[in-house]
Design goal:
This protein has 166 residues and is α+β, with helices and mostly antiparallel strands. It has a single domain, classed as Jelly Rolls (Sandwich). The chain has four helices and six strands, in the order ααββββββαα. It is globular and about 55 Å long. The termini are far apart.
């Protein structure tokens, strides 16, 4: 796949990739593209097959989970330089763990997940760097989601307690 110098420049502007060599950046560019998305658009849905990893260049993306009896709940918000869709790099999880919905006009670096996983296998230095960063993202998103769910439980129990007073 051909890539433009603008795509190379976009990749080089992402701190996540500061340690990559020129060759690694070019290989990454071959499996990437810039995607423009509009409010209301779903990038992926919870349970979908994994296809792309996204890095938000501009805009805002809501990360939602379906919670029984509560419906869709926003559990996180992705902003510029956040990474979403990391599950494309987890070999056991082959489906999306959340829904990503565009909140503001957004520009994204879209990276083919299967090709990125293959690239990580072929270039272990690149693979180590990518997987180390993905591990940090997963851990911080897990913590944020956990705290949000605690809030939901706390608010639900307060509502239940209030309704029992009468």
């Amino acid at each position: 796949m051909e890539f433009s110098p603008d795509l190379i420049a976009e990749i080089r502007n992402i701190p996540w990739f500061n340690e990559l060599t020129s060759s690694q950046v070019e290989r990454l560019a071959r499996i990437s593209s810039i995607q423009n998305s509009q409010p209301g658009e779903e990038l992926f849905r919870e349970g979908d097959r994994v296809e792309y990893l996204y890095i938000i260049l501009s805009g805002k993306i809501a990360i939602e989970n379906y919670i029984p009896s509560l419906g869709k709940q926003i559990v996180n918000a992705g902003e510029p330089l956040d990474v979403i869709g990391w599950s494309c790099l987890t070999p056991v999880v082959r489906q999306r763990t959340a829904t990503a919905r565009v909140c503001q006009p957004s520009r994204l670096l879209s990276i083919n997940g299967e090709a990125l996983a293959q690239l990580c296998e072929e270039d272990h230095d690149l693979g180590f760097l990518i997987m180390r960063r993905v591990a940090n993202i997963v851990a911080s998103q897990f913590l944020a989601t956990r705290l949000h769910l605690y809030d939901i439980i706390r608010n639900s129990s307060h509502s239940l307690a209030q309704s029992n007073l009468f």
